[in-house]
Design goal:
By secondary structure, the chain is an alpha+beta fold. The chain has two helices and six strands; from the N terminus they run H-E-E-E-E-H-E-E. It starts with a helix and ends with a strand.
Length: 110
Protein backbone atom coordinates (compact mmCIF):
# COMPACT_ATOMS: atom_id res chain seq x y z
CA UNK A 1 0.00 0.00 0.00
CA UNK A 2 2.86 2.40 0.83
CA UNK A 3 4.49 1.76 -2.56
CA UNK A 4 1.26 2.62 -4.36
CA UNK A 5 0.85 5.82 -2.36
CA UNK A 6 4.46 6.85 -3.08
CA UNK A 7 3.95 6.13 -6.79
CA UNK A 8 0.76 8.22 -6.89
CA UNK A 9 2.43 11.14 -5.09
CA UNK A 10 5.38 10.91 -7.51
CA UNK A 11 3.10 11.01 -10.54
CA UNK A 12 1.21 14.03 -9.18
CA UNK A 13 4.41 15.91 -8.37
CA UNK A 14 5.91 15.14 -11.78
CA UNK A 15 2.80 16.31 -13.59
CA UNK A 16 2.96 19.64 -11.71
CA UNK A 17 6.63 20.09 -12.59
CA UNK A 18 6.07 19.20 -16.25
CA UNK A 19 3.31 21.79 -16.47
CA UNK A 20 5.86 24.63 -16.09
CA UNK A 21 7.64 25.92 -19.19
CA UNK A 22 9.93 28.81 -20.06
CA UNK A 23 8.94 30.97 -23.00
CA UNK A 24 11.11 32.53 -25.68
CA UNK A 25 12.75 35.83 -24.83
CA UNK A 26 11.30 38.85 -26.62
CA UNK A 27 9.22 41.99 -26.41
CA UNK A 28 5.65 42.19 -25.17
CA UNK A 29 3.42 43.09 -28.12
CA UNK A 30 0.25 44.15 -26.31
CA UNK A 31 -1.39 44.20 -22.87
CA UNK A 32 -5.18 43.98 -22.40
CA UNK A 33 -7.19 44.27 -19.19
CA UNK A 34 -10.67 42.79 -18.82
CA UNK A 35 -12.59 44.63 -16.09
CA UNK A 36 -15.60 42.33 -16.36
CA UNK A 37 -13.85 38.98 -16.52
CA UNK A 38 -12.09 37.31 -13.62
CA UNK A 39 -12.12 40.52 -11.56
CA UNK A 40 -9.69 42.21 -13.92
CA UNK A 41 -7.64 39.55 -15.71
CA UNK A 42 -4.76 40.89 -17.78
CA UNK A 43 -3.64 39.26 -21.04
CA UNK A 44 -0.04 39.76 -22.08
CA UNK A 45 0.47 39.18 -25.80
CA UNK A 46 3.89 37.71 -26.38
CA UNK A 47 5.42 35.17 -28.79
CA UNK A 48 5.97 32.39 -26.27
CA UNK A 49 7.28 29.75 -28.66
CA UNK A 50 5.02 27.24 -26.88
CA UNK A 51 2.29 25.16 -28.53
CA UNK A 52 0.03 25.31 -25.47
CA UNK A 53 -0.16 29.10 -25.43
CA UNK A 54 1.43 30.70 -28.50
CA UNK A 55 -0.30 34.07 -28.01
CA UNK A 56 1.01 34.85 -24.52
CA UNK A 57 0.07 34.58 -20.89
CA UNK A 58 -2.34 35.94 -18.33
CA UNK A 59 -2.34 37.15 -14.77
CA UNK A 60 -5.34 37.46 -12.50
CA UNK A 61 -5.88 39.65 -9.40
CA UNK A 62 -6.45 36.44 -7.44
CA UNK A 63 -2.77 35.51 -7.97
CA UNK A 64 -0.53 36.51 -5.02
CA UNK A 65 2.06 38.32 -7.18
CA UNK A 66 -0.43 40.03 -9.50
CA UNK A 67 0.59 43.65 -8.81
CA UNK A 68 4.30 42.96 -9.08
CA UNK A 69 3.92 40.89 -12.27
CA UNK A 70 1.72 43.59 -13.84
CA UNK A 71 4.27 46.26 -12.92
CA UNK A 72 7.12 44.29 -14.50
CA UNK A 73 5.05 43.59 -17.63
CA UNK A 74 4.12 47.27 -18.03
CA UNK A 75 7.73 48.32 -17.51
CA UNK A 76 8.94 45.84 -20.11
CA UNK A 77 6.24 46.92 -22.56
CA UNK A 78 6.77 50.67 -22.27
CA UNK A 79 10.58 50.40 -22.28
CA UNK A 80 10.49 47.87 -25.14
CA UNK A 81 12.74 45.54 -23.15
CA UNK A 82 13.07 41.79 -23.58
CA UNK A 83 11.19 39.57 -21.18
CA UNK A 84 10.99 35.85 -20.54
CA UNK A 85 8.14 34.16 -18.72
CA UNK A 86 7.66 30.94 -16.85
CA UNK A 87 4.12 29.72 -17.44
CA UNK A 88 1.81 26.93 -16.36
CA UNK A 89 0.98 25.24 -19.68
CA UNK A 90 -1.78 23.23 -18.01
CA UNK A 91 -3.57 26.34 -16.70
CA UNK A 92 -5.10 28.06 -19.72
CA UNK A 93 -7.21 31.24 -19.66
CA UNK A 94 -10.89 30.37 -19.91
CA UNK A 95 -11.98 33.75 -21.27
CA UNK A 96 -11.43 32.77 -24.89
CA UNK A 97 -12.51 29.80 -26.95
CA UNK A 98 -9.02 29.47 -28.43
CA UNK A 99 -7.43 29.15 -24.95
CA UNK A 100 -4.08 30.41 -26.17
CA UNK A 101 -2.95 32.08 -22.93
CA UNK A 102 -1.16 30.25 -20.10
CA UNK A 103 -1.13 31.37 -16.48
CA UNK A 104 2.09 33.26 -15.77
CA UNK A 105 4.18 32.14 -12.81
CA UNK A 106 7.11 34.50 -13.33
CA UNK A 107 8.16 37.37 -15.58
CA UNK A 108 11.86 38.16 -16.02
CA UNK A 109 12.79 41.59 -17.34
CA UNK A 110 16.09 41.52 -19.28
Amino acid sequence: MKKILVAIVGIVLNSKVLALSLTNMGEIKEINSYTDYGNGDVLIYFDTGLNACPSGGYISPSMPGYKTALSIALTGYTAQRNVRMEVFTSNLWSGTSSKQFCAIRRIDLK
